[in-house]
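User: Reviewer 2 asked us to show a designed sequence for the structure in our supplementary figure. I'm pasting the structure tokens here. Could you produce the per-position amino acids so we can include them in the response letter?
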């Protein structure tokens, strides 16, 4: 069994290659509705999450340990590993660093769902990323991997200043509001549990990716934005189980479950979306995504 470290994972596969692997899996016929649900197991302290999935060639499971709210801030909130096994013999093939895999997979999923809607290369893509944590930084790397470093103009918005090699704007400032209003693409990658983005904050044709929340009592996007937008999700049932941005908007009457558009239908072209309103892609993270990217890393 091959042990792949954090650096091994990132050296093996670019974000753009991870995007291609995810899109190809959907084009090849994989249906996320058949995926296994995430299992959450209470521990004496904190929580364990198990994310198993299977494909004909390989199967696997990601095991995550999630710290409680009073955890030591010097330690990562989430730690874990990914076990990849052969689909026929069930022989363990590789153990991959789970944090690196998640950092690679999450922004790759985001870009895989909206790549078809990104503007052409007439001018740099205007991108605003709300949140400067690992996922915010990961999305910046993924955007540049997909459209090229010269093809994107990226700004970060957060409450505390960060030096990330891109312009930083203070959350709530006039400069941040202006950048959001002009952005082609807005990424919400925060730990917020209440609203940080509403309909009037963005352009009428903006693309919004929301990755920060994955419980039904937390959200980043207001109901008026969800109700006005085309809403893409990885899978309808997964969104109804885990996406507060979706369930709270439905509870407030701004959205219906029947309005949700599966990512598979967008990637395969089964559904075409007009650009007369915003496009929201709400992700929660699914086991099949880890498996596809882990397999691509292992083969690379």
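Assistant: Here is a per-position design you can include in the supplement:
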């Amino acid at each position: 069994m091959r042990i792949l470290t954090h650096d091994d994972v990132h050296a093996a596969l670019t974000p753009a290659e991870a995007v291609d692997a995810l899109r190809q899996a959907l084009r090849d016929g994989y249906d996320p509705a058949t995926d296994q649900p995430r299992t959450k197991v209470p521990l004496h302290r904190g929580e364990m999450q198990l994310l198993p999935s299977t494909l004909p060639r390989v199967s696997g499971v990601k095991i995550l340990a999630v710290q409680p709210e009073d955890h030591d801030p010097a330690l990562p909130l989430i730690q874990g590993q990914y076990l990849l096994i052969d689909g026929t013999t069930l022989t363990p093939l590789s153990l991959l660093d789970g944090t690196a895999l998640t950092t690679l997979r999450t922004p790759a999923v985001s870009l895989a769902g909206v790549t078809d809607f990104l503007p052409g290369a007439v001018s740099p893509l205007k991108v605003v990323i709300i949140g400067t944590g690992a996922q915010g930084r990961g999305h910046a790397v993924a955007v540049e991997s997909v459209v090229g470093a010269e093809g994107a103009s990226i700004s970060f918005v957060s409450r505390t200043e960060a030096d990330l090699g891109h312009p930083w704007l203070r959350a709530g400032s006039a400069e941040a509001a202006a950048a959001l209003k002009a952005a082609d693409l807005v990424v919400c990658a925060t730990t917020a549990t209440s609203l940080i983005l509403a309909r009037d904050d963005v352009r009428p044709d903006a693309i919004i990716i929301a990755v920060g929340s994955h419980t039904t009592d937390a959200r980043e996007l207001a109901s008026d934005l969800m109700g006005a937008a085309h809403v893409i999700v990885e899978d309808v049932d997964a969104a109804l189980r885990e996406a507060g941005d979706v369930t709270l908007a439905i509870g407030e009457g701004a959205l219906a479950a029947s309005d949700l558009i599966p990512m598979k239908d967008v990637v395969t072209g089964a559904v075409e979306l007009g650009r007369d309103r915003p496009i929201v892609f709400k992700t929660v993270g699914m086991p099949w995504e880890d498996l596809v990217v882990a397999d691509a890393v292992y083969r690379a």
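For the response letter, you might also mention the following. The CA atoms of residues 80 and 258 lie 35 Å apart. The mean pLDDT is 94.
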